[in-house]
């Protein structure tokens, strides 16, 4: 039951991201200026520079964790700036200097009776995906090997038949005393001398 709930949430999250990404293509265009953003992800100082957007996001694993930084690629822009909030992730983007430090992000509350996904739940989801891949490999590998074996058989048979045909053609072109067996040669000689 819990796996179905998370599958629906993942599908809904993917639909939200794709829909909002398609509707906000214009927002991904680089700005004419360089933004200075607050950053918790840089090693030197607490700022970073970008021409796209500043972002802030909050995640919930065991406790809420906030991160701030610069959107540096269009792919990251699609993910960070267009993702709808989920019970475990929420992000926002802005286009002014140090604006991401002012963003107040909150995670939606979980419905009663539900808990945040734990590491064990994540493993179960991953193992389920892994089983699907293993089954696909178990089915496709023998099919590929059988197909390869049939192709190899056809190739070798065709090659052998072509070589045999070449030999027959050469013997047909060079019919003469040297190519005929002795018994047939004897018959021809016998026939010519007595006729």
UniProtKB/TrEMBL annotation:
InterPro entries membership: Activin_recp, Snake_toxin-like_sf
Protein name: Bone morphogenetic receptor type-1A
One of the Pfam families matching this protein, by short name: Activin_recp
GO molecular function ontology, one term from the record: transmembrane receptor protein serine/threonine kinase activity
Originating organism: Paramuricea clavata (Red gorgonian)
Keyword Signal listed: yes
Start and end residues of each Activin types I and II receptor domain: 45-102
Gene Ontology terms: cellular component: membrane
SUPFAM superfamilies to which the protein is assigned, alphabetical: Snake toxin-like
